[in-house]
Every structure is written in structure tokens, then in C-alpha cells.
Amino acid sequence: MASCRIVYLMSIISQMMISSRRLCSAATSRHRVSSPSCRASKSKQMGFAIYPSFRSIPICTTRSLLSTMKDDLHIDKVNDKSDDEGGNEYIPPWSIPSNKPNSKAFARFRQHVNPLSRRYQMRTELPENWPKCDFDNVNMPLYLDIGCGKGGFLLELVGRRYANGDDSNISPGEDAYRAISRSMEDTTALWLPNEMNYLGLEIRPGVSQYAQARVEKRGLSGKLSFVGCNANVDLERLLTLYNEAAGSDRIDDHLTFVSIQFPDPHFKKAHEKRRVVTAELVRTLAKFMKKGTAVFLQSDIKDALEAMRERFVDEDGKLYYDEVECKNDGDAVDDDYNMKNQLGVPTEREVSVLSKDLPVYRTIFVRNEVVAS
Fold first, then answer.
1. Taking the chain (373 residues) in consecutive chunks of 10 residues, what is each chunk's mean pLDDT?
2. Most exposed residue of 60, 72, 85, 303, measured as fewest CB within 10 angstroms of its CB?
3. Which of 231, 273, 269 lies closest to 121, judged by CA?
4. pTM for this prediction
5. In the sheet that 224-228 helps form, which strands lie side by side, from edge to edge?
6. What are the residue numbers of the active site?
7. Can you give the three-state secondary structure of the chain, one letter per residue?
């Protein structure tokens, strides 16, 4: 009797699975029939992020057969990214809403993205009044952190310099990082003016949104801001807008200090072209920095640090920066690039690396008088 019931149940399950496959196949077929023109027009775009019409198509799964799926994700359209034929539009990945800030998934991110993919070659969307909407005083010098990640370094740096930040929303993990960070000697005064604006750039959309949410929780709005973008696409535009908002006659009046810390090393030979420090990036930084301003580089991968350094040492035969010899770290394992952290404020990645007794490689460049073309 029990065996008959088992056979009966198995037959019902088998029929449900067959029905599920048929429905999925039908949904896929309808999508393929209706979308060739969309894909044809899509291939003509020089760059794209998300094609809005595709996002409304639900994924056919067993769970979707048992419930009605509703597409409640609203995506704003970008006015200057219209398709010539169908009028369809694309949006930058940083404009797509992430998970709700209070959800557990909000702090979970993918580790790597391909900056050369077409969706990350788009210009990021900015408010019309940027940067005045992000900073209280745009006439102050600017600190730029390229590849800021979750923003822990800038949050700690700005929190130290502006003691009026709100500490009530700090998580236990953040509190532990801050305790380790503040055990190190703060030497920011050697390199940075007393009052600055701080800007972090991050290519991963969810990460940049998470970092910006932390700014508001810490009460540091108006002094610190994070922008989701590809630095090799948007850097010149961002710095130009900052200078224009300040009403400066010179383009090199404001960018005072730049840090590039623990970037994605892209180990594979074929992926080296994805690295953030490029010849164009060096030229752009040199264009907006005046003599005496500095660029700080560090990584826990020696090859990655050397690859960044090579871009600054000799870029098209023009030496825009001079490498500075600083006080070395006496506990360093490797004699190359073993200087101490010049700011005295570690990143979250740096704290993790040092806790494992692994080396961190650092160097710093100071802008010279060579004019950037």
C-alpha cells in the first residue's frame, strides 16, 4: 500500500516537472521571437548598462509557477542615451537601486567587475548641481580616493578630522576597525590641510551606494561624498565640475591629495589592461594637480604596486611626478617599498593584511613643475 502511494506521488511530481519545463520553454521562445530587433539595435550602441525592456521579463522557475510575479522595480530613463531606431534607452549601472539599506543583502557585494565591459564604460549620472549638493563649501581643497571600496578609510579619516560625526550607528565590526586604526600614529597633518572636502570613487555600484549610506549614518554629509563611476571614464569630468563650481581660474587649484590603495591586481596577463592606473589616468591627475601635491599608492601585492609605480615614473617620456623617499617601516619583511603609511590611517584591507603578518608595499609621488598636455 505504501509503495503504491510512493509511485503515485512520484508520478504527480514527474508531471509537474514536465509542465514546468514546457512553460519555461514557451516563455523563452516568446522572448526570443520578440527581441531580435531589440538585440539588433542594442548592438549598435557604443556602450550600455541595462536594457530596461529586458528587466520586465520574469525568470521562469518552479517557484514562479506557484506564485504571481510582479515587477516592482522602477528604473528611470536617461535622456541622452536613447536608441536611434526604437527610442529605447540605457542607464548606467550606478543608477540602478540597490537593496534596501536595512536589509542584510545590502552589505554583500561581488568582489570584482570588468571595467572594460560596455556597461562600465558609460558615464555616471550626476545631479545637475553637483558638487554643490554634496559639499557645503566647494572652495576647499579636495582629497580624492580612487577605488574607495566600502569607504571605511575615508569615513575614519574624516571622522577623526571632524569630531562631530555621529558614532551611534557604528557596528561592532566598524568599531573594532576604528580601535585598531586609532592605535596608529595620525600623521595626516604632514600632508593634508586642516579643512578639505573628501571624495571617494568606486566602480562597483552596490558598494558605492553602501558607502554613501554610511556617510549619512555617520553625520558627515557636506564633507564627504562617494560617487559610483569608472575613474578612467569620469575622472576628468568630475574634477572639471568641481573646479567650475568653485569658480577657479586654474584647473589645478583644488586637487591636493590622491590615494589609490589596494586596487584589484588583475593577475592574469590578459587582464592587465583592466587595472585602474592607466596612462590616461596619470595624465588626468597631472592636469588637475599643481606642484607639491601628492599621490599615495599602496598594495599588498608587490607586482600590483610596481605596475602602478611604472605609470607614474615614466608616462610617454614625461615625468609629471617625483618619487619621494620616506621613513621606512623597521618591521617590514621586504626592503622594497617598505615605507610607513604616510597618513597613519589604515584601510580596512590594510588592517586585515597586517593582522596576518603580511607585507604592505607603499610609495608616494609628489607633483613637479612639468606641464601636463
1. 74 80 65 44 40 40 35 37 46 78 55 89 95 96 96 93 68 77 86 94 93 92 96 97 91 94 88 91 95 95 93 77 74 65 91 92 93 81
2. 72
3. 231
4. 0.73
5. 224-228, 197-202, 142-146, 255-261, 294-299, 361-367, 321-324
6. 264
7. CHHHHHHHHHHHHHHHHHHHHHHHHHHHHHHHHHCHHHHHHHHCCCCCCECHHHHCCCCCCHHHHHCCCCCCCCCCCCCCCECCCCCCECECHHHCCCCCCCCHHHHCCCCCCCCCCHHHHCCCCCCCCCCCCCECCCCCCEEEEECCCCCHHHHHHHHHHCCCCCCCCCCHHHHHHHHHHCCCCCCHHHCCCCCCEEEEEECCHHHHHHHHHHHHHHCCCECEEEEECCHHHHHHHHHHHHHHHHCCCCCCCCEEEEEEECCCCCCCHHHHHHCCCCHHHHHHHHHHCCCCCEEEEEECCHHHHHHHHHHHHCECCECCEEEECCCECCCCCCCCCCECCCCCCCCHHHHHHHHCCCCCEEEEEEECCCCCC
